[in-house]
Structure formats: structure tokens, C-alpha cells
Amino acid sequence: MITKEVIKTLYRMHKTPVGYEEILPVLNNFILALKQNHNLKIDDDTLVLEDMDDDNLFKTIFIDRICGIEQLDRCFALVLPNSILFFNKDNSEINLHIKIPKPSILDRIKGKI
Fold this sequence. Notes:
Elements lengths: L3 H10 L6 H15 L5 E4 L2 E4 L10 E3 L5 E4 L3 E6 L2 E6 L5 E5 L6 H8 L1
């Protein structure tokens, strides 16, 4: 089950993008593991989620923006700097978590004046 704590841990473990050369072997294994239910492919320097609509912002993901990939109980998590895509292992479902930045103290003070 994906809880708030799991999400916080994923962001903490994968803070910055890994880089193309380092993530590529992991990404290839990720694509192979999910090929039964998800249509994913690598096109030059991007990961393309073929099943998504063309107007979806997450249809193409630059590989050098990927912070990490983790296998969880029922899904794989693709961690980006401000979002996580959860790919279900048993069906074609994809869930998304978007990290909303908290306003700084200065932003909060400005908002009250």
C-alpha cells in the first residue's frame, strides 16, 4: 500500500536526478518487468508512455530527470524531482503523486500583509 510515509521515503531516497548512463540499465529492467501491462519505450533521451494521451504532460519523460526507480509490493515507483509515477504490476493503471512545494516563511509573511 502506498502511504504518505512511503511517498516521503521515496522523495528522501531519490532527491536528485541520477543521470542517463546510471539509470539506463535500471530503466531497461523496469520496462521489461512492466511490458505485459504497460507500453513503455525509450526514444533517444526520453521515456515514452505510449498508452497515455498525446496531451498528457507525463507521456514523455526526459531520462536525465529520473531520480530513481523502486519496486514496491504491487507497483514500481518512477521518482522524478517533484512527482512520482506508480505503475501497477497487475494491470495498466498508473497513479501519480505531485509534490506541492510549501511556501517559505517570507511567502507566508507577504501573504498576510
